[in-house]
Specification:
The chain has about 425 residues and is α/β, with parallel strands linked by helices. Helix content is about 45%, strand content about 20%. It is built from 18 helices and 13 strands. It has an 8-stranded mixed beta sheet with strand order 7-6-8-9-10-11-13-12. A 5-stranded parallel beta sheet has the order 2-3-4-1-5, sandwiched between helices. Helix 11 packs antiparallel against helix 12 and helix 12 packs across helix 15. The longest helix has 22 residues.
């Protein structure tokens, strides 16, 4: 299946400033697959080393970082001779070996002509705690579950994808019901590559759900790889996310993790899940003007799961409730829809995403981000019967104080352009707006 990150890998390969690449992402989002495919398609050879439980790999950087010795051992280990500019060298689960991450500095400084890419299921955790992190010596890319655009690509809907991206809404309109149905499928299946492939291969829905539960179980077991004192706290935070999303007010509450729970009890555990790529954390801003980061209130935030399909598995939703009617969009107070929008924005944005809320006047904007000096304000709606009082009020206030603001509503309605707001159908979220 085609992944959009492939184009970013090509840019990395061709960059004259290329450094060793760290590919970050949660377990089973397709990091190993895409690196191997990229190597096979774009290079004359691939040196692939899985560092997990690999005694030879464990000794690669144990004593020193002598490049001729390392390349000779890589050839002996894999049977492929590393050639500068012609071979892609992949270290998988590099966080499992001593000095693996530190070695990237020496590849950058002493062998810059070689193309190095690394990945790992808990690599984000290792980078945060690694004392010898190679600052300024690596390039970084983030990989996420497949977005809705990639899901449409897997279904062969390239013509509709192009029409949506180019804003040809008159062409898209006759296919509104079809695209809405495909969106229901995405809500159920989600974007984990193994699950998407099984669905495209006509595997039964019950088995699809089984695959998702296996992934959730693997994540749960990974949590045991943290310090013993934090494992149970990490699992408590993880288990609380779906129930917190099911509330009307989706602001994350530590007291809902455990009775009497406070931030200082669970902040480290929450950050572990963020670093692993298992949750999406969106901070609140107190003002809706640039620079948004200046107005960030890190004490209040929302948390979403990395994948809407996994959210459905965590909720134990029935296929019939997701794939027929509008239940998927309305269920759990719009939790699916808001999680879906958060997931797609994470794929799209290079800048941080926030949300806005205040009590007087009572307003809440689901998502905010900056595009240069412009503020993009987004409201997500799970139904066709939409009212956008908060978005309208917020837009008027910000315009009156001179903020360059563009307001969007993602809903089940077709495309609608109004003076103060544009409604984009949820299936068109990857449009360039």
């Amino acid at each position: 299946m085609k992944r959009l990150i492939y184009d970013s890998l090509l840019k990395w390969k061709e960059s004259p400033l290329r450094k060793p690449l760290i590919l970050l992402g949660a377990r089973q989002v397709g990091k190993t697959y895409i690196l191997k495919k990229f190597g096979a398609d774009e290079y004359s050879g691939v040196v692939y080393v899985n560092c997990h439980n690999n005694p030879v790999a464990e000794n690669l950087f144990k004593e020193d970082f002598d490049m001729p010795r390392i390349f000779l051992q890589l050839e002996a280990l894999t049977g492929v001779k590393p050639l500068a500019g012609e071979t892609l060298i992949i270290f998988d689960e590099i966080q499992e070996i001593r000095n693996g991450i530190a070695s990237l500095k020496y590849f950058c400084e002493n062998a810059p002509e070689f193309h190095i890419a690394v990945a790992g299921s808990l690599l984000g955790i290792s980078l945060r705690g690694e004392e010898s992190y190679p600052v300024g010596k690596v390039d970084t890319l983030h990989m996420y579950p497949m977005g809705f655009e990639e899901f449409l690509m897997a279904k062969g809907e390239n013509i509709l994808i192009d029409a949506i991206k180019e804003g040809q809404w008159d062409v898209v309109l006759p296919f509104h019901d079809k695209l809405t149905q495909i969106l229901r499928e995405y809500y159920y299946v989600g974007g984990m590559p193994e699950v998407v492939k099984a669905y495209m291969d006509d595997i039964q829905l019950q088995e699809i759900r089984g695959l998702q539960l296996q992934i959730l179980d693997a994540y749960y077991r990974d949590m045991a790889k943290h310090t013993v004192s934090q494992v149970e706290k990490i699992r408590l935070v993880w288990r609380s996310v779906p129930s917190q999303l099911a509330r009307e007010n989706k602001k994350f509450i530590f007291g809902a993790v455990r009775k009497g729970g406070r931030g200082r009890d669970f902040e480290e555990s929450l950050q572990w899940l963020v670093d692993c790529g298992l949750i999406i954390k969106i901070d609140r801003v107190k003002e809706g003007r640039p620079p948004l980061k200046f107005y960030s209130d890190i004490s209040e935030f929302k948390v979403y799961l990395l994948d809407v399909g996994l959210l459905g598995a965590a909720f134990d939703t029935e296929a019939i409730d997701v794939l027929t009617g509008d239940n998927a969009f309305k269920e759990f107070k719009g939790a699916f829809t808001e999680n879906y929008v958060a997931q797609q924005l994470q794929l799209k944005l290079d800048s941080p995403c926030y949300y806005y809320s205040q009590d007087i006047p009572n307003m809440e904007i689901d998502f905010l981000y900056s595009l240069g000096k412009r503020i993009i304000a987004i409201e997500s709606k799970a139904e066709q019967n939409v009212r956008s009082k908060s978005l309208y009020k917020f837009t008027e206030i910000e315009k009156n104080i001179g903020v360059d603001i563009k307001s969007l509503r993602f809903s089940m309605l077709p495309y609608i352009k109004q003076d103060w707001m544009t409604n984009i159908p949820l299936y068109g979220i990857f449009n360039q707006y």
